[in-house]
Design brief:
about 600 residues, alpha/beta, Pectate Lyase C-like, 2 domains, 16-stranded mixed sheet, three-stranded antiparallel sheet, about 20% strand, CAP/MinC_C, TBCC domain-containing protein 1, cytoplasm
C-alpha cells in the first residue's frame, strides 16, 4: 500500500471548541510556550500530567496571567477532552458543595490534564491571531516592569474578522504553517538549542506523538475507519516515511515533519465537505405572499463522533422545531437566520449562532459550548457547559450553566437572565450530557479582552465594556412555554427559579387572580360580557401585533408540503413529524415536516 493512500487532517473540535474566539494574550506566544515546555519537563509534578496547582503557579507566577484567565484555559481544555456524563455530574456535585473559595480551590486542585496536549491547546489559541509574529528578543519570563505591550495591529481585536473556529480551510492552513513549531513543543529539553529551537537530528518519542492526537487524525484510504495519528505513523505505509524506530520508539523530527506535511489534507468531515457533499435538505413555506427558502446541510449520516455537524442557514419568518437522533451529539451552526423561532430539543455537542437577528432559539442541553457572534436582537434559551457572546447587540440569554458566561469584545446591550423553560425530556437529556442544575453561574459573567480578564477600572477600547450587559430585572421576567407535546417526565424548570424571579412570577399570578375576581364581582349581563370579551380580544390582538408575538403564533399553524427533497433531487428520508406536536388553543397539532 502506498503512503499516498493515507490521509491525515486537523480534527475539528479542538479548533471549534478549544480556541477562544478572541485574540490571545501575548503571554501565550511561542516564545513563552517554549519556556513553559522546558519548565514542565524539568520540574517535578508537571509531566506527563499537569495539575491545576502547578498550572496556576506557571500561569500566575511565571506568565503573570490573572488567576481567572488561568482557570478559564484549564477549564476550557477540561470541557474539550472526553469525560463521561457520570464524571461530569460527579464533578458538578462536588462543586455545588463548596461554600468558600478555599473549598473551591481544594476541589480544583484535584483536576489534572495531559501536559503535552495542554501545551498544544495553548498554542492553538493563536488561531484567532491574524499574525503569528513571535518576539525574538525578550526576558526569560514576562516582567512586571518590562512586559512587551503589543501594538494595536498585534492585538487583532477586530470583531468583524472571519470566524475561523468553524473554517476547516483555516484549520488546515494553521497546521501546515506551524507544524514545525507544534512539533518543537513536543521535543525533550535536552535536544533543544539554547534559544529553545529543536536541533535537526533530534528525536520525538512515541508518547509525545500520541499527544498530537488532540489535533490530528486520519485514515488509510477514503472511507476507512478514522484512527489517531500515532497509529497511522507507526505501522503501514507511513512507518518508513516517518522514520519510526521500534527499538527506540521514536521518530526523527525532520522525517516526521516531512511525512506529516506530505499527508496533510482537508478534513473530509469538515464544513467544506458538508456543504459540498453532505445531505442538503430544504423546506419551503408560504409567508405573507412570498416564498422563502431555508437550507440545512448535515453529515450526521456518515461522520464519526466529534465530527457530526448540522448547518442551518437563512431560516426566515418560520418556526423550525425538531427533536431527533440526527441532532444528538452534533455540532450545530445557525447562520444568518432572521425573524425565526428555532427549537432544537435534543442533546447537542455545541451550538454557534452567527449573524442572526430578531429570532428566538431554544436549545436542548449543549454538552460543551454555545457561542453567539455578530447577532442582533436574538433571544437564546439553553442549558450549556459554556456560553460565550461576542460582537452582538440587544441579545437576551436565558441560561443554566456551570461556568461563568464569557463576554467577548464588541457587545452592547446584552441581557442575562435565568433559565426559564422546560420540555418533558429535558432532565433526561441533561443527564445524558452530564449537565446538572447546580452550580449555576448564569449571573456572574467574565469579561474577556485581548490581554485577559477585563478590570472595569482599566477598560480599553479593544476590551468589552463593563457596561455592555445587565442582569434581567425580575419585574421584566416571564417564563417561556415550549409549544409542543413530547414524551417525558420533566414538568417544571429544572432546579427552579432564583427567589427574586419566582417572587416576581407569584406577584404577576396574584394580579391575574385579582383581575379575574374583579370581573366576576362586576356581575355583567350577557351583552356586557360579549362587549367586554370583544374589547379584551381586540386589545390582546393589538398587543400581539405591537410585540411581534402574532408572527410566532401564526408560524405554528402547519402548512401542507407535498414532498421534501434533497437540493440534488432524490427524496430524503421521511421526516418524523410525530416527534413533536404544536400546541395551539390547548390542542396538539402536528408540525410541518421540516427534516434535519
Amino acid at each position: 500500500m502506498e503512503a499516498d493512500s493515507v490521509s491525515i487532517w486537523p480534527r475539528m473540535e479542538p479548533f471549534l471548541l478549544g480556541a477562544l474566539q478572541v485574540a490571545p494574550s501575548s503571554k501565550l506566544s511561542l516564545h513563552y510556550l517554549r519556556k513553559m515546555a522546558t519548565y514542565v519537563r524539568t520540574r517535578d509534578g508537571c509531566f506527563p500530567i499537569l495539575g491545576w496547582p502547578m498550572w496556576r503557579h506557571i500561569a500566575c507566577g511565571k506568565l503573570q496571567l490573572p488567576e481567572d484567565l488561568a482557570w478559564l484555559y484549564f477549564e476550557t481544555f477540561d470541557i474539550l477532552v472526553g469525560h463521561t456524563p457520570e464524571e461530569r455530574l460527579e464533578w458538578a456535585e462536588f462543586l455545588s458543595q463548596c461554600s468558600s473559595k478555599s473549598e473551591l480551590d481544594q476541589q480544583r486542585n484535584k483536576l489534572s490534564v495531559d501536559t503535552l496536549q495542554f501545551l498544544l491547546f495553548l498554542y492553538i489559541q493563536q488561531l484567532n491571531r491574524v499574525s503569528l509574529r513571535t518576539s525574538l528578543i525578550g526576558e526569560e519570563w514576562p516582567s512586571h516592569h518590562r512586559t512587551r505591550s503589543p501594538s494595536p495591529s498585534d492585538r487583532e481585536a477586530k470583531t468583524s474578522s472571519q470566524n475561523k473556529n468553524w473554517d476547516d480551510q483555516a484549520h488546515l492552513s494553521f497546521v501546515q504553517s506551524h507544524l514545525a513549531e507544534i512539533l518543537e513543543l513536543l521535543v525533550e529539553p535536552g535536544q533543544l538549542s539554547q534559544s529553545g529551537q529543536a536541533l535537526r537530528d533530534c528525536q520525538i518519542s512515541l508518547d509525545a506523538v500520541r499527544s498530537l492526537g488532540l489535533l490530528l487524525e486520519g485514515s488509510v484510504c477514503r472511507g476507512k475507519a478514522v484512527q489517531p495519528v500515532h497509529r497511522l505513523l507507526t505501522k503501514g505505509p507511513l512507518q518508513t516515511q516517518a522514520g519510526y524506530s521500534t527499538l527506540s520508539c521514536s521518530f526523527p523530527l525532520h522525517k516526521l515533519l516531512l511525512c506529516l506535511q506530505h499527508s496533510l489534507t482537508l478534513n473530509p468531515f469538515g464544513i467544506t465537505a458538508c456543504l459540498h457533499s453532505g445531505k442538503k435538505l430544504a423546506w419551503a413555506q408560504q409567508v405573507e405572499g412570498a416564498m422563502k427558502r431555508a437550507k440545512i446541510a448535515r453529515n450526521t449520516h456518515m461522520a464519526p463522533p466529534g465530527s457530526k455537524m448540522v448547518l442551518m442557514s437563512q431560516v426566515f419568518k418560520q418556526t423550525l422545531a425538531k427533536t431527533s437522533d440526527r441532532l444528538t451529539g452534533a455540532n450545530i451552526k445557525i447562520h444568518r437566520c432572521s425573524d425565526a423561532f428555532i427549537y432544537l430539543l435534543s442533546p447537542l455537542r455545541s451550538v454557534s449562532l452567527d449573524k442572526c437577528r430578531d429570532s428566538t432559539v431554544v436549545l436542548g442541553p449543549v454538552e460543551t459550548s454555545v457561542h453567539i457572534h455578530g447577532c442582533q436582537n436574538v433571544r437564546v434559551v439553553c442549558v450549556a457547559g459554556r456560553i460565550a457572546v461576542g460582537a452582538s447587540s440587544r441579545c437576551t440569554l436565558h441560561a443554566l450553566t456551570p461556568t461563568r458566561p464569557l463576554l467577548l469584545p464588541g457587545n452592547t446591550d446584552i441581557t442575562l437572565g435565568p433559565f426559564h423553560t422546560f420540555y418533558p425530556s429535558l432532565e433526561d437529556h441533561m443527564a445524558s450530557v452530564g449537565l446538572a442544575v447546580v452550580p449555576n453561574a448564569w449571573d456572574r459573567p467574565l469579561l474577556l479582552g485581548t490581554e485577559g480578564i477585563v478590570n472595569p477600572s482599566l477598560n480599553a477600547s479593544s476590551n468589552p465594556d463593563p457596561a455592555c450587559y445587565r442582569l434581567l430585572p425580575p419585574a421584566e421576567f416571564h417564563t417561556l412555554v415550549v409549544p409542543f407535546q413530547m414524551e417525558g417526565d420533566t414538568c417544571e424548570v429544572p432546579g427552579g427559579l432564583p427567589p427574586p424571579y419566582q417572587a416576581a412570577l407569584d406577584e404577576k399570578q396574584k394580579r391575574i387572580q385579582n383581575w379575574q375576581k374583579t370581573v366576576t364581582e362586576a356581575r355583567l349581563n350577557k351583552e356586557q360580557k360579549r362587549q367586554f370579551q370583544e374589547l379584551v380580544e381586540a386589545k390582546f390582538h393589538e398587543w400581539l401585533l405591537e410585540t411581534g408575538n402574532r408572527q410566532e403564533l401564526d408560524s405554528l399553524i402547519p402548512t401542507t408540503i407535498a414532498s421534501l427533497k434533497d437540493s440534488n433531487g432524490p427524496a430524503t428520508d421521511t421526516p418524523r413529524v410525530n416527534d413533536t406536536k404544536h400546541m395551539r388553543n390547548g390542542r396538539p397539532v402536528r408540525q410541518s415536516p421540516m427534516a434535519c
